[in-house]
Amino acid sequence: MRFASLFAQKSAVSVARAVRAPYYVVQAMGLNAPERLHIAPQDIRTADPTVADEIYAGYFSFAGKIVETQGRSPFAIDPPSAAWRRSLAGFAWLRHLRAADKALARANARALAEDFLAIRRPAPNDPAFEPAVVARRTLSWLAQSPILLEDADQDFYDRFMEALGGNARRLLRALAAPRAGSDRLICAVALAAFGVCGDASRKFEARATDLLDAELTRQILDDGGHVSRNPEALVELLLDLLPLRRAYAARGRRPPERLLPSIAKMISFLRLMQHGDGSLALFNGMGCAPPDRLATVLAHDDASGPPPLDAPQSGYRRLQAGEAVVVVDAGAPPPPSFAGAAHAGCLSFEYSILGERIVVNCGAPPASAEASRQLARVTAAHSTLVVEDRSSCRIRAQHGEERIVAGPREVRALRRATGSSRVLELAHDGYAAELGLWHERMLSLTHDGAQLFGEDRLVATRAGVPARDFVLRFHLHPRAEVAPLAEGRGALISCGAVHVAFEADAEVAIEDSVFFAGACGARKCAQLVVSGRDREDARLRWSFTRVDERGEELVSAPRDI
User: Fold this and answer.
1) C-alpha distance from residue 70 to each of 55, 59, 113, 170, 432 (Å)
2) What is the pTM assigned to this prediction?
């Protein structure tokens, strides 16, 4: 019955898309180029005017690759990577030229746009014409239209407007395709911006608003998380939605019904994922988000009071007490079409004190580091339990990208409080189908934030399940210095002015690890490793306790967990 229900739902969606597709195509054919732009939405991403000098000198640095054009057009050379080509053709770098506020920079911006407009027959599979890149280019051109069109001749003006109209037609056709994925949302954002900023018909503007509303409904969950479960996706999305919200208000237009509440929920969700140092916890594709971008987004937060503690639809939970913060992945993998960057990190957690991150996940490296990205997605790259060196999810190539195709189907999370602690009781069945085991984890943070207790347990789902080797991993932030405690049952961790003692009821090893989410690339770090072999009702207990420089406890809290 469940299979029949899913099949019926998918069939209904397919039929609906098939019915809508011809309408989108016809509408795209009838869409004219705008005669003028009424408003240029503000680009709120941070700009660096020194980049304008580099671009004028012929140096283009994108996606970890630097290219010197030697006087040639950057659009005419063989790109070093598809990611580099996407960044170039997205024109987000125009903001740096605008920030330079020089006539030379404005002329250079127009000349480079001229080079792109001169492309008549794109090569097959040119990344510059992928829907997401077309959407980014549309948003960049709209935001930076003042420097592109100021003092422009009529010929350039007409070709630029025609190119904007062509972008909108491509985006409409892309939304007509029956494919799912995060790209549909950025396409809808770009179409809505085109509709509200240009002199498109009110009918088209209303249609674009409805398309954006539909994608926000589909991709932004009720708790503010993105369906991909990647916090970084929200940061990038908000950097486009916040200016769009302002553009609707400036034109006196009706925004999508879901736009304003979605923005508020997304910002609230990011606060849940935030450590004391302002950074976001590293889950499901989250890498090194530039702090200026996150700060820009959170500056629009109108809420007061502490951050929320639960995001049940997105699958994240938060413990906070004193100066300590714990963020936990307590959710199943996202749908396969949104799982291209998701990680096998169920029940992993991150832990910080006084703005110093202690326990982390390895994080996601840049998109250009494909081999490292695959390593970062396995369960062993997360601070959780690993059974038989296997991941709790299966990742497989599907439709041109590596997606999670199987993983935990049931994840449990229960919050309770005791006289001295705040407790999360967690469990997932990611190892049940293959190994016949559930992983249960309990996390307890004392009310003063001085101690974090944990307990991990493997529970057999049926009789006769053989004993399995398992490893508990606690990856430490690169700033953390670690030394073993006596008898090998723990370690002393120092991170800035914060000192923490880790103890476990089994031998603790200190091994090398790698932190992929560093601002300057991957960095070496350490991890605490506790090995064991499960048996009937096996439990492994461990704890982190704040201590002074001599290793003595700052606070003694009862263990009534």
Assistant:
1) 11, 9, 18, 32, 58
2) 0.89
